[in-house]
Amino acid sequence: MRNADSGRLSWGYHKRLLSGVFQILSRIGDNRAYRIMINYVKSLDRQIPIGALELIADLLPSFSEVDLDEILKIATNQDPLKSAFGILALFQLIVQGKIPFEKTEMTKEFLKNYKNYVYYLDSVVEQSLDYLKAQEEPNLLTFFNEIAV
After folding, report:
1. Would residue 8 be called left, alpha or beta, if left means φ above 0 and alpha means ψ between -120 and 50 degrees?
2. What are the tens digits of pLDDT across the range 2-50?
3. Beta-carbon neighbour count of residue 47 at 10 Å?
4. Across residues 104-117, what is the average pLDDT?
5. CA-CA distance, 10 to 6, in Å (whole number)?
6. Nearest-angstrom CA–CA distance, 101 and 26
7. How far apart are alpha carbons 125 and 132 in whole angstroms?
8. How far is CA 125 from CA 31, 33, 35, 92, 145, in A?
């Protein structure tokens, strides 16, 4: 991992090794593995493929405790790559239902005002907002179940 952090391992040449490392970390699933993944993203000082960021973001919901405030902080980063990771990770947390109810409004407000001019993430932001809105609206099936009882 130190070689990856130092930039000696590039995603272009070592994608199988690096993706394997992140897969293993997600299977370990403890707080230390989570910190390694987050710190890797926070310490990026060069471009990596967006697919690599998507992989890491896709694996985050497998951890039992994900710090939403930290993900939002990464999403507000001035670095467009880190900010893109924050949005991709936030989307995965929303889809997996890992956003606490009390932080839903704050998350929606953040997404409504989000801009990243380097990476096209408008569709991800739009899908995230749609998903959060759908969670608020009463479910028709739930309505009929309540009537039947």
Report:
1. alpha
2. 555 445 568 878 889 999 999 999 999 999 999 999 999 999 888 888 8
3. 12
4. 94
5. 10
6. 25
7. 11
8. 27, 27, 25, 11, 32
DSSP H helices in the chain? 2-6, 11-28, 31-42, 50-59, 68-75, 80-95, 104-112, 122-136, 140-148
Average pLDDT, the chain: 88
- pLDDT at site 90: 97
Provide the pLDDT for residue 149.
56
Residue in 77, 96, 75 with CA at minimum distance from that of residue 85: 75
Q: Which two tokens stand for residue 22?
A: 């992140």
pLDDT digit string, tens, across residues 63-75: 999 999 999 999 9
* Residue 103, domain extent: 2-148
Packing angle, helices 122-136 and 104-112, rounded to 10: 150
Domain count, the chain: 1
120 vs 136: CA distance, rounded Å: 27
Distance CA 111, CA 129 (A): 7
Residue 121 has pLDDT above 70, yes or no: yes
